[in-house]
Amino acid sequence: MPYRAPISDYEFLFRHAIGFDQVTATEKFSETSEDVVSAILTEAGKMCEEVMAPLQRPGDLEPARLENGVLRTSPGYGDAWNAIAQGGWIGMSGNPEHGGMGLPMAVTTAVNEMMSAACMSLQLAPLMTQGQIEALEHHASDELKALYLPKMMAGEWSGTMNLTEAQAGSDVGALTSKAEPNGDGTYAVSGQKIFISWGDNDFAENVCHLVLARLPDGVPGTKGISLFLVPKYLPDENGNPGVANDLKVVSLEHKMGLHGSPTCVMQYDGAKGWLVGKEHGGMAAMFTMMNNARLGVGGQGVGAAEGAYQHALAYALERKQGKTPSGTIIDHADVRRMLMGMRADTFAARAIMLANAAAIDMANATDDAEWRARAALLTPICKAFGTETGMRVSETGVQVHGGMGFIEETGAAQYYRDVRVTAIYEGTNGIQAMDLVARKMMDGGEAASRLLDEIEDHAEQARATMPELAGPVWEATETLREATEWIVAKSDMNDRFAGAVPYLHAFARVLGAHYHLKAAQADPDGARFKLARYYINALLPEFAGLLAQAQNGADDIYALSADEMVA
């Protein structure tokens, strides 16, 4: 079964679950009507189905390669990039002043998820470019904005982010890349960066790198880091790509998945760059891009889950095995259990993702501190739960295929291989969880408490018509509130960190139940009610064990010494 964009799911969530009516009620997004959104989703869905999805398998089999220093992308990727660019899908949320559509991030996020499901390797290229667009919009000089943003939004130029070095992974402050002033307002950037997604390509006229480096007077650690825009080709007096800059792709990584996406080792040898943001303010500028990317990576997880689910469902509907009413494995109870879990979790992760995007839209439209806190709170949950859902669902998809899932020709394993890295890049899921219980709780848990209040209020209201579903949601939320209070009260951060991952997943379980309950109310006699009942009865109860782990403290995980860890 070819990939089919789940447009009805997006439209349903926009209409009934994530509060998108609040977004369109703002002056900033008042022209984003329901008809406009449907037209955009339909057109983007068609592009994903007809242009990108056919490249999913070929890109895996014929990866990007480096030939005599020239990067060659997978067959068909260039044409698909042009289709993405010409459709306006790169600059969807960009400022119209520079050629963007000015659409809500929620709409962009839905389109990005579709593209991820269709062909994640290729989707990484516009995702990286979108992140750079946002960073430049917030932090670049007017001159840089005027030159770079229109070309990036049009897809003429692409963008990357360069953080990681061999000795500086999650500890970005350990980087050694340097930037020396040239005396003319530009800088000479030198150093080597690794794990650079789409560090080069053969379809964009220019590739623009955002590079973290340290100025001569930069102090050690993250506070001494600055951000620089370093293009592959230096723009000439007309703003067109001119002479080559002093940078190159040293090599490409051989990876478990995402073969169509070149992951580059980049070398900068005094390459000319321009400062973005303030001197020594690189992390603040880069975090603008990283937060966008974390939402996008969560969406990649959801997209992989959707693709894997559709792939597994098609197989289950066709595979004949045993004596069943249909003659296929779709009637086996364990296969049904797997498929129901895949679909229910994908819906929950998608709802959390879109609610996160809608909160970002509300923060941008109103500049309200509570909306900014809501968006910040949901970001690590969206990223971690979305990617964990992608891994879990794609792994289950292999299981639905049985022995054929282990055979590469079926394509089932590719979803798992491709999505696996999403739990690692843009901040590992462990770091997301630590961020949730530390930085996101610096307000004493107020943002979390406001969200839990909303969930409880909704569940209380739903008791009148759906007590069997609303009751468990209310009780789970109250238990989550108690665990949140325990975390906030813990001054020992290691006790918080020890249980951070299970706490985040318990939070996501409750959020997922909340959105499933909303869906059930909007479709009380239909499939969404049945799916919500499955999620709340079968998956929500996991929260109790997760919260028990979350409040166990650090003593047990440190009980064995390093020597005792060795068998």
Radius of gyration: 24 Å
Order of helices and strands: HHHHEEHHHEEEEEEEEEHHHHHHHHHHH
Mean pLDDT: 96
Q: Could you give the distance between the termini?
A: 47 Å
Number of helices, counting only DSSP H or I runs of 4 residues or more: 18
Note the beta-strand portion. Answer: 5-15%
Detail the poorly predicted runs: none
Structural class: alpha+beta
Helix coverage percent: 40-55%
- Give the overall shape: globular
Largest β sheet strand count, sense and barrel closure: 7 strands, mixed
Total strands = 11
Q: What report would you give on this structure?
A:
The longest helix has 37 residues, at 282-318. Strand 1 (65-67) and strand 2 form a beta hairpin. Helix 10 (369-400) packs antiparallel against helix 11 and helix 16 runs antiparallel to helix 17 (527-539). The protein has helices spanning 7-16, 20-24, 34-52, 56-61, 77-86, 105-139, 142-153, 282-318, 333-366, 369-400, 412-419, 429-437, 446-462, 467-489, 493-498, 500-522, 527-539, 542-550; strands spanning 65-67, 70-72, 157-162, 178-181, 187-197, 206-214, 225-231, 233-235, 241-244, 247-252, 263-276. Among the domains are: 158-280, Butyryl-CoA Dehydrogenase, subunit A, domain 2 (Beta Barrel), CATH 2.40.110.20; 430-558, no CATH class. The strands form three sheets. Strands 3, 4, 5, 6, 7, 10 and 11 form a seven-stranded mixed beta sheet that branches. It has 567 residues and is α+β, with helices and mostly antiparallel strands.
